[in-house]
Amino acid sequence: MRTRILLLLILGSLPLKAQPLGYLNQDLRAKEAYRGQSAYMDFYHDLALSQEDVDISLSGLLSIDGYISSGPVYEKDLARLYPFPNTLVVLRMSGEEIRRYLEASYAAWAGPEGLLLKNRQQADGSIRWNFLNSPSNFDSAGGISYTVDLSKSVGERVRISTLADGTSFHADSLYRVGITSYRAAGAGHLLEAAGIDPKDMENRIVRRGAAFRDILRTRLASADTLRPGQFRHGHWSFAPQAALDSLDEDLKRIFGLPATGWHSTHAEVMSQIERAGGVYLMYPTNQPRPTAAPKGYEPFYISHLGRHGARYALGETVYTDLWDIWSRGHEKGWLTPEGETIYEAYQELYPSVAHREGQLSRKGQEQHRLIARQMFRNYPPVFKGKTRGQAVSTNTHRVIASMYSFLEEVHRLDKDFSCEADYGFPAQAILLPGPAGDPSWPAAVQRKFDRFMDDRLDVAGMLARWFVQPDSLVKHPYRFLNDMHAVISDLDNLDVPAPAKLYNVFTPEERYRLWEVYNYNGYLRFGLCPDTSPVWAEGVKPLFRDIMEQAENDWQEGIRLRLRFGHDLSLMPLLSLMDVNGMGAKVKDPYDVADYWRIFDVPMACNLQLVFFQSKKNPEILVQVLLNGFEATLPLEMAAPGSFYRWDDIRHIVQNP
Fold this sequence. Notes:
The protein is α/β, with parallel strands linked by helices. The chain is built from 25 helices and 25 strands. Strand 12 (144-149) and strand 13 form a beta hairpin. The strands form 7 sheets. Strands 18, 19, 20, 21, 22, 23, 24 and 25 form an 8-stranded mixed β-sheet that branches. A 5-stranded mixed β-sheet has the order 11-3-14-6-15, with helices on both faces. The protein has a 3-stranded mixed β-sheet with strand order 5-1-16. Among the domains are: 22-256, 5'-nucleotidase,  domain 2; 318-359 and 443-497, no CATH class. The N and C termini lie far apart (80 Å).
C-alpha cells in the first residue's frame, strides 16, 4: 500500500503534457512583407478581421526579420507569435482617411528607387545597410485591395479598388477599422497624417477590444488550423515592376545576403507543389523563343550538357523496401486508418514499379525529343546544310537512352544530320568526375544540419499518423520519409497512372519542408557553401575546361553540335561553379538557403546550352546562355539583352579551371 501511495504521489507531481491550442499550416517570414502581400501580415490582419465589427485592418510589422514556423502552437508560444501586449481598438475612419493613412506609411517605406535606406561604414571597411525609418511604422491594410504606384508623387500613390469581398470602396464612406492600442495612442503619427485630430480620438472609437494574444488563442481554438496563405483579406502590391526589382535588391542589402539569385521559394513551391519534388520535377514545356541576337549575328555552334530524362525512383531496392514496411504493418495490424489507406494505394502501384528503379520512362525519352525540337526551331542556321555533331554519354542506361532519343529526333528533323555517338568509361571521368577530395562534412556542419532537420521535420508526428507502432516498423525514420517522398515526387515521371491517394500522403507544407531539408543537404554537397569544402565544384572543373576547349576545336573541324549527356551530380556543381542564375551564392544560414539555391532548378532532362553566334562584320563571338530552355544569367556584363555574353569573358569565368 505504501508503495502504491508513493507511486501515486510521484505520478501526480509529474507535469501533464501540454496540449496545443491549434496549428499553423505554413512558415511565415517577415522579409516577404516588405515587397507586397504576404502570409506573414495576413496572419496579423486576420486577428482584427476575425472580429465581426471590423471591416478593415491596419497593422505594421511586429519584427524586422520575424520568422514563425508552422506546426502546433502552445500557450507558451503566444508571446512569441505576438510579442507585444497590444489590444484591439476599433474606430471609424472614412475611405479617404484610410487612403491618406496608407500614403503616410508608404512614404516612409519606399520610393521610386526602392526601399528608403541608410548605410554606415563599419570598422572593417564594410558597409552596413539599414532602414531609414522604423519598419514598425510600415503599416499595410487587410480587408481591401489596392496598389501602391511608387512612380507617382507622395500623396498620389495609393489606389484602393475594392473591399476584400469585391464590393466598391468609397472615399466618403465610413468604415470600422481595427488597429492596435499602440497605434491608437498616436505612435508613428499615421493617424494624424490621415487627418485625425488626437483630441477627437475618443469620439472615433467604437470599442476597445481584447488583447491580440487572447484573440489569437480564440482563433486557434475555433479554427484548429490557421492557414494564412488561404485567407481572403484582399490584396495589395507595389508597382511598377522596376520599383519592385529595386526593392528586391535592397532587401538583399538589408539582410546581408548575396546580391543576386534571391527568390521567394516558399511561395513558388506552394503555387506549384511539384517543385517540392526537387530533382524529380518534370522538365518544363513553356519555354518562349529566345531573344534574337544583335543585328548581323547568326548562331553557328551549340554546346549542350543535359541530364537524363524522367525516370523511375532511384535506389536499388527503394520500391521493395517501402513495400516491405507497408505490407508488414498491414499484416501485423500496426497501421492506423490513414496508414491502411496509404497501404492500399501503394499495393495498387507496386506491381508496375517493382524492380524498375532508375529506369528511363517513355516520358523521359519524349523530354529529350522536345529539347531537340526546340533547338532545331530556335537556331535553324546551325542545321543549315550538312550538320555534323558529336555526342557522348555516361555508361548508365537511362543516360544512353536519353542521348539516342535526342539524336533520333534531330535525324528526323534534319535528314543531312550526321553524328558520332559514344558512351562508356572514357567519357565517365569527364561527365561524372565525382568530388575532388573528401566529401564528408566537418562534425560542426553535421550538427548544424541535424538541428535544422529536427526543427523543420516533425518526424514522430508524421509516422504516428500512419503507424500504431512506428519503432517496430521503421528503423531509419528520416530515410523512410525521404524515400516515401521521393517515390511520391516521382509519380509524374512514370508511364502508368498513379493512385490519387498517394499524392496526399504529405501535406503541402510537409512536402516543402522535406524538400527544404533535402535541398540544404544538396547545397552543402554541390553548392559553394562557406561551411563546407567545395570538393564537388572542384571536381567538375575538368568538365568546364572540356566544354571551353572542345568548342574552339569543334569550330576548326566543322562540328556544329557538341552534345553531352550525364547526371544531376555534375550539373549541380557546374551550375554553382559558373554561378548560373545566382547558384554560386554563398549562404551560411540554413534557413536562407532555399531562397538562393534550389535543387528543383535541375529537373529531369535539365540542360545547359551555350549557343555561339558570329558576325561577318564583328570578330567578337557572342554566346547565348540557356538553362532548361530559358535565358540564364552569368556573373558577367551582358554584351546584349537576352543573356548574350562575350565568349572571351565566359572562358575565364572560373578561376584556375
